[in-house]
Amino acid sequence: MRIGVVTFPGSNGDHDALAAVELGLHQEAIAIWHKDHELGDVDALLVPGGFSWGDYLRAGAIARFAPVMDAVIEFAEAGYPVLGICNGFQILTEAGLLPGALLKNSGLTFSCRWVHVRVETDRTPFTHGIDPGTVLRLPIAHGQGRYFAPPEIVSDLEKNDQIIFRYTDRHGVENDDANPNGSLRNIAGVSNRAGNVVGLMPHPERAYDAALGGDDGLQILGAMLRSRMAVAAK
Amino acid sequence: MSVSDTTLREVALSRSEYDQVVVLLGREPTPVELGMFGAMWSEHCGYKNSRPLLKLFPTSGERVLQGPGENAGAVDIGDGLAVVFKIESHNHPSAVEPYEGAATGVGGIVRDIFTMGARPIALLNSLRFGPLERPRNRYLFQGVVGGIGGYGNCLGIPTVAGDIFFDPAYNGNPLVNAMCVGIVQHDAIMKARASGIGNLVVLVGADTGRDGIHGATFASVENPEESHRGVVQVGNPFLEKLLLEACLEVLQTEHVVAMQDLGAAGLTSSTVECASRGNVGIEIDVQYVSRREQGMNAYEIMLSESQERMLVIVREDGLDEVRAIFSRWDLHSDVIGRVTGDGHVRVLDHGVVVADVPAAYFVDACPTYVRDGIESPEARSARLYDCNSVPDIAASEVIPWLRRLLASPNICSREPVVRTYDHTILSNTILAPLEGDAAVVRIKGTTKALALKTDCNPRYVYLDPFQGGKYAVAEAARNVSCTGATPLALTNCLNFGSPEKPAGYFQLREAVRGMAEAARVLNTPVVSGNVSLFNESENGSILPTPTVGMVGILDDASKRVGLAANAGDALLLLGPPAGALGASEYLALRLGANLGAPPPVDLDVEARVQALVRNLIQQGLVTAAHDTSEGGLLVAIVEMLIPQRVGATLDLDAVIAASLGRVDGGLFGESASRIIVATPYSQRDVVERLAASAGIPVLTLGVVGGSQVHIAGVGEVEISDLCESWSNGLR
Amino acid sequence: MNAGDASVEANRQFLIEVFITPRPVVNDPQGLAVRDGLHQLGYAGVVSVRVGKYLRLHLEATSEAEAHVLATEMCDKLLANPVIEDYRLSVSPLIADATARD
Amino acid sequence: MNAGDASVEANRQFLIEVFITPRPVVNDPQGLAVRDGLHQLGYAGVVSVRVGKYLRLHLEATSEAEAHVLATEMCDKLLANPVIEDYRLSVSPLIADATARD
Ligand SMILES: Nc1ncnc2c1ncn2[C@@H]1O[C@H](COP(=O)(O)OP(=O)(O)O)[C@@H](O)[C@H]1O
Ligand SMILES: [Mg+2]
Fold first, then answer.
1. Which residues of A touch C30 (CB under 8 A)?
2. Interface test mutation site (partner D, options C21, C30, C55, C78, max chain D beta carbons within 10 A)
3. What domains does chain A contain, in order, with CATH numbers?
4. Is A53 on the interface with C (CB under 8 A)?
5. Identity of the residue in C30, C40, C41 whose CB atom sits nearest the CB atom of A57
6. CA distance C64 to B256
């Protein structure tokens, strides 16, 4: 499988995403530049973390207008798997590919630590084959990860099975202590209506090797490989 | 015509230094030249007071590829790779504007690393503040921590280790030392030596503004808040990230002959250093320098310390390719001049010469001072304080004291700080902050890893600069050894008060002597460093703080060991068992003052204890290792129990007996060369045997398990209670 | 919003608006990035951008003059960082109704 | 600041001020923190604080009306995010002299 990784000015998770694809998934990683107008021949796309344009104004706000974004939007609308991680999630919400927005953490500081998230649905290419209710341990590292969407949107998300990950304790129980940033209803990741575009704040691409503290991230990245046929069939 | 005292004060030159300038030039300097001399002859750039002392450091070794003198040191780590590292202070700017001061400190040290062609892979920071009860100190603390995280996180370089210490001597004068570590192929190491007459001088990155004018001079005078009149520098980590990637890419081409970041004294020091190191001249015209503001004159342009700028010396035929790479990264670059053959730094403003001085005058002719140093009477009498005049504590007081020590700001959990630093980015961190005595980061594509730590107990250095200097090196190395890594080399930042005061000079000289001796015996040459003197405020000098940044190598990364003990492990103490009260955190808390002689370091024992622990780790015999430092033995034991929230059953009578029979001395006294290891109970005797054959005392302290810490003859306490004391000290 | 009770009878509420900008000579990386972003969007006419903060406070005070004095003090002490920022403020009386909405 | 040349003759410069606030339904922890900080300093009369952004743009346009249209577009596209933010803007002509200072 050929997995594209987009680099924006200020991206810094691109190296990890490329490494996770190559060293963790053993798949081909393709670096894509923000000034490119085409994605080339890729089967799936990772929009990595970092501080695109310094996160100035709002995280992801300026990146959303990068030349490559037209191609990203086209790719997403064609139903291919697109995963936005951290800043990538922020960019995809700014671009309107995902609902909601990500605000400054309720604690007002950057937070780097390992958290638990519960997989809410297996209908996306990034959770395909993972039993709903499975708890994964992943690192977070962000200052603006508080998920917010207006109430009517959130009920839509619930109704349409678009909430993909929730922060929980290690036993899968949702509570305030397990919510690292004040996200609405402990939401850690959401998808678009179709389910092929997913964004999450935790970093699966930094959890591909037990030596790093855990390899649960491989389940999310690896799900792409299993679900590929399903997506291609559409 | 003679220059006024006010002007001289502005450039921080003495009258006699000015006279030397006139003699050298054979004429009065122009205003621009005078400003340039002021910057280059400041302590910060010229090391006027420290240069003779720095010669005491051992700087070479089989693995040293680059010692002091370039932007950073470089050490061979095999596989054709080198580790490049340096530590630098940003104390004065942080006292004025803590967030931006600390942020730009990180920015500066990162540039020093990628200037060498190395990719930065880790950041460390060493911080000193006055007590947090004072609102101003808390403001500085929060700002500094915020700035370090804000800049490093954005750059995507993990901040993996550091150290923090509080003492009233840092009121109004916090210390902010940042260290960066990078990796480079041997043959890709780039130097800051201009060469090739006719080659082009290219300035790339941020536009030049009026920020930080006289930063270098201002870093070398007392009372920063008062003396600082320039515009505070505001960092742009986003721009630095672009510079980092673009510079590393440009260095892949054949077109660059030298690279130098613009740090203190901006264009002045970068042009002077590039020319002087390369034994060539440089001619630039400031009209080509892009500005952020209108109406800047040559003086301001030459002394501006605007951040995120680099000087690149490029072959003319490669210019287009180099500039294309920069513009691909949306970076603006200007050709501002050329390399010349006459050894002069010549500055033009629209073709008119405004400065023309042989580079050597700025560098080689910089005056140096060797002064008289005398121990201050206060430090002397504090050192000679009779610790045994303090009554011992009763067994019933041990647990309350333990809790008090665990909650002390100098000992308690650094979690509230480290959580705001991204330590997982780059996916190399295999021993994270709080997991081990040093951080361990793997090197992708090899089996190797680096162990990194900064350290300095400034209380020790204050009370006995020579022993304290030795101890700082020994402790940093010990922390590295406790992960299983072999200490390779060190960098250091000498943060001291005024060397013009005999007591200040004494501290500086003695600490450097001690550090040099330890570095020699422990075989960890000094490959880079930085000097920050004149750290004084209305309450006098800071505690002398020679921060050591140690780098070690672990050939097999999978062998690394943290500090968390497991249930079922035995705890063994390696090294001389006795603790003593002198200069301890315990005594400081008890008496509210820094008192007593710090523990002396027997470097031979130190080296053997460290070798032993590395050997044990190498053989897979231990699950955890941790040295005893502030707080002494019992605190160190509890620090090994906290991560797994597990208890232990301890018998520490032998330690107490060895410590003149004092309960407080044995449990809370401090000492050098002690390491506690946790080993599966069944392997205890193997460890004992190896220790015996290495000639190192070994003592079984107890067994890990349960939810309580039981201490024979003392009582017990829930580990969760101890966790609570430890966790909340910085909140 | 529990401080909003009317127990101190004479007090009225004022809206304080504080406009904080980076001082003119201070580098404003955020402004530069936004300017470049706008250029990328095709707004070539954007000459410069400075990004600051906008605070809205509801404050109880006995008079507009007092509100002004208090607000100035708060800016000097906490809201603006004089080392790198300038501020300007405006005070206006709040009608009870508006309070609820803001 | 190289975009500031006067080659487009008809153009004049305008100062655009943009005031961005978090939408009322959005929690503003920063505002709460500032309020608490002010209470701690003894300003008990502070009822609420909301923290937003204040942008100052210098924009070339042929008329104030055009400047207003452009500024509104920029806000809608980039400067504010309608999911979480409200904005207000004001346009005023810049006299040549003021340009240099801001
Ligand atoms: N400023 C800091 N930044 C990052 N990590 C830090 C900082 N200060 C302390 N740490 C981490 O906290 C842990 C404890 O540090 P310290 O108390 O200095 O250990 P020791 O007493 O063994 O030298 C280490 O993992 C260290 O790297
Ligand atoms: Mg240690």
1. 54, 56-57
2. C55
3. 2-233 (3.40.50.880)
4. yes
5. C30
6. 64
DSSP states of B318-381: GHHHHHHHHHHTT--EEEEEEEESS-EEEEEETTEEEEEEEHHHHHTT-----------HHHHH
B100: nearest CB among C25, C33, C84: C84
Would residue A112 show up in a list of annotated catalytic residues for this protein? no
Whether chain A has a CB inside 8 Å of the CB on D33: the answer is yes
CB contact under 8 A, D52 and C48: no
Contact assessment for residue A193 and residue A160, using Cβ atoms and an 8 Å cutoff:
yes
Chain B partners of A51 at a C-beta cutoff of 8 Å?
153-154, 156, 237-238, 241
Q: What is the pLDDT of residues B215-229, one digit of tens each?
A: 655 555 554 444 445
* Residue A51 forms contact with C (CB below 8 Å): no
Looking only at the bridges linking them, the beta strands covering B159-166 and B536-537 are: unpaired
Q: For chain C, which residues make up each domain, given as ranges?
A: 3-94
> Which architecture does CATH list for B1-41+191-366?
Alpha-Beta Complex (3.90)
Looking at residue A53, what DSSP letter applies? G
Q: Could you give the CA distance from residue D6 to residue D12 in angstroms, rounded to a whole number?
A: 9
What is the rounded distance in angstroms from the CA atom of residue B176 to the CA atom of residue B174?
7
Task: Name all residues whose Cβ lies below 6 A of ligand 1.
Answer: B 125, 127, 159, 161-164, 414, 417-418, 421, 433-434, 437, 439, 455, 479, 627, 629-630
Token couple for B698: 């070994």
Nearest Cα residue in chain C from A64: C37
pLDDT band at C11 (very low <50, low <70, confident <90, very high): confident
Ligand nearest to the CA of B625: 2
B395-412+561-731: CATH topology? Phosphoribosyl-aminoimidazole Synthetase; Chain A, domain 2 (3.90.650)
What end-to-end distance do the CA atoms of chain A give, in Å? 17
Contacting subunits of B (3+ beta carbon pairs below 8 A): A, C
Residues 6+ apart with CB under 8 A from A149: A99, A100, A101, A157, A184, D83
Question: Smallest Cα–Cα separation from D53: which of B168, C21, B422?
Answer: C21
Mean pLDDT (chain A) is 95
**Residues A106 and A68: beta-carbon distance below 8 Å:** no
Would you state the structure tokens that stand for residue B441, as one six-digit string? 């980061």
Q: Is the pLDDT of residue B177 over 80?
A: yes
Is the CB of D51 less than 8 angstroms away from the CB of C54? yes
Is domain C3-94 given the CATH code 3.30.420.10 in the classification? no
B interface mutation test: which of C27, C79, C84 has the most B CBs within 10 A? C27
Helix (H), strand (E) at residue D60: strand D46-61
Residue from A18, A104, A110, A218 to probe the interface with B (highest B Cβ count within 10 Å): A110
Which atom of ligand 1 lies closest to the CA of B626? 22
What average pLDDT does the structure give for chain D? Answer: 87
- Are B210 and B345 contacting, i.e. CB atoms less than 8 angstroms apart? no
Token match 């949306």: residue?
B330
Q: Which atom of ligand 1 is nearest to the CA of B437?
A: 22
Give residue A197's identity as a one-letter amino acid code: V
Which residues of B carry out catalysis?
44, 90
Min mean pLDDT across A176-180, B140-144, C23-27, C68-72 is at C23-27
Question: Which region, left, alpha or beta, applies to residue B461 given φ > 0 means left and ψ of -120 to 50 means alpha?
Answer: alpha
**Chain centroid to CA A135: how far?**
16
pLDDT tens-place string over residues B466-495:
999 999 999 999 999 999 999 999 999 999
pLDDT of residue B222: 55
Task: Quickly list DSSP for B648-695.
Answer: EEE--HHHHHHTTT-HHHHHH-B-SS-EEEEEEGGGHHHHHHHHHHTT
